[in-house]
Write a structure and sequence with these properties.
Structural class: mainly alpha
Helix content: 40-55%
Order of helices and strands: HHEEEH
Number of domains: 1
Strand content: 5-15%
Number of strands: 3
Largest sheet: 3 strands, antiparallel
Number of helices: 3
Distance between the termini: 33 Å
Shape: globular
Strand order of the largest sheet: 1-2-3
Length: 99
């Protein structure tokens, strides 16, 4: 591996660690995702009516929701807090030439 590749990998890793830390912090601060992470940790109730209203949108895919290192996932996709949604969309569209 070239030195340039090694620097690139270190930069990518640092970015990922910073992003993960930010996602963890926002999950704790976001009242809905904080409640969701607590629900994932303690287990889902038997019926949707036992859930608070703000967690009911997650009921249909409750078996796919997991928690890893303080970040909530649906399958392999992270559940992004409202505060990060516009930033994440901007990053996804960077370089998209509309093709």
């Amino acid at each position: 591996m070239s030195q340039k590749d090694q620097k690139s990998n270190k930069s990518t890793f640092f970015f990922l660690v910073r992003k993960q830390t930010a996602l963890q912090d926002e999950t704790i601060r976001d009242p809905i995702l904080s409640a969701l992470s607590q629900g994932v940790y303690t287990g889902w109730p038997d019926t949707i009516t036992e859930l608070p209203q703000h967690l009911r949108p997650y009921w249909l895919f409750r078996d796919e929701v997991g928690l890893s290192s303080g970040v909530i996932f649906k399958g392999q996709q992270g559940i992004i807090q409202t505060t990060f949604q516009s930033e994440s969309l901007g990053q996804l569209h960077t370089g998209n030439m509309g093709i």
